[in-house]
Amino acid sequence: MRKKVLIVYAHQEPKSFNGSLLKIAVEELSKQGCSVTMSDLYAMQFEPRATRNDIVGHLHNSEAFNYGVETWEAYKRGGLSKDLVEEQKKVQEADLLIFQFPLFWFNMPAILKGWMDRVLVQGFAYDLSKVYDGGLLQVCFWNCFIKVKTRSFSLTYLFPKTHSPLSNCMASILASELPLHVRSGKEEVTLSPRNPCCPGLPEYLLNRSGALL
Amino acid sequence: MRKKVLIVYAHQEPKSFNGSLLKIAVEELSKQGCSVTMSDLYAMQFEPRATRNDIVGHLHNSEAFNYGVETWEAYKRGGLSKDLVEEQKKVQEADLLIFQFPLFWFNMPAILKGWMDRVLVQGFAYDLSKVYDGGLLQVCFWNCFIKVKTRSFSLTYLFPKTHSPLSNCMASILASELPLHVRSGKEEVTLSPRNPCCPGLPEYLLNRSGALL
């Protein structure tokens, strides 16, 4: 069965260094027989703000809005907004997750942080009230991520091993790369002026993804 | 002269714990003779996405969009979008900056990360090409922050001392608080069900802000 890869991509410009890495990733993974799905956040005009709009219908407590509680309750009754349900479906179907983004202030851009805030809600990605061996965290952990063999790695930034959104609701971060010194002779690799060279990236990716899938 | 305080606030619900901290901060700082300005990001529907819309008029390089370069160039020629110019003006006028926000995935919510990404652009907040003693970083540092005695602290979260947006473009982070165990008998302090108690927060804030201003 073909492995499914979801790439969550957060750059505005296809001709950028990030855009090049994305292109190569799609080509290389397709060549390896994977089916690649994409969430191109800027192109989708993905909404990063966590608001009441994420809940369809009534609120659990309309007196005082609590985003965490409301999205958890909405998840349980199937009442999350359409864009969130679609992203969660992509995550659930994926065997491998790739986050491709530039560093903004030593971390992911707001549009991707918004994806984390809104898509990885309690119930779907974790559950604080039941944890570890006997808990929903494990169940969810397995249902959403391990069971479907989802793994996470980043081509451009190292998620800290602790205190990152993903380290706490996924099995493991397989690899986390900051490919600043990658070089390539491939002409089809278009890079931004600030990143004038790119390494044997297909080989680089092949080496990495070989170990990942 | 009255000290000016800018509070950048990122919570959807006035009746939340964050809302209560905000209310007390405004009351206490006003009592101390400060003039308080607010950026209530959810109420403003602040845009967190870093896009071409942030640049008014022509691009420096329309062939390949580079957000960092474009906002830097736009800043120099006064071509940033109105919402960014307004926020930068508030920052420049402030003697003290307070960021009030809940933790989403061990960090600030996307709407506040978007404020950092979009408001603290190169030229205004820092300059990578000229650094340290002889550089624009210092100049900007002084112009934007030190000279106007802007300081940053957070009531609810500790910005890491390194690798936070602010640690690198401001003089210092004066205080960073995670007031989970604060208690109060004040009836006017409305707290969320998940935070049933609140401490001598006015005194707490008074003690802190006394050292800050």
TrEMBL record, chains A, B:
Keyword Oxidoreductase applies: yes
Domain of life: Eukaryota
Keywords linked to the UniProt accession: Oxidoreductase
Gene Ontology MF terms in the entry: NAD(P)H dehydrogenase (quinone) activity
GO CC annotation: cytosol
Residue ranges of domain Flavodoxin-like fold in the record: 3-128
Family recorded in the similarity comment: Belongs to the NAD(P)H dehydrogenase (quinone) family.
Name of this protein: Flavodoxin-like fold domain-containing protein
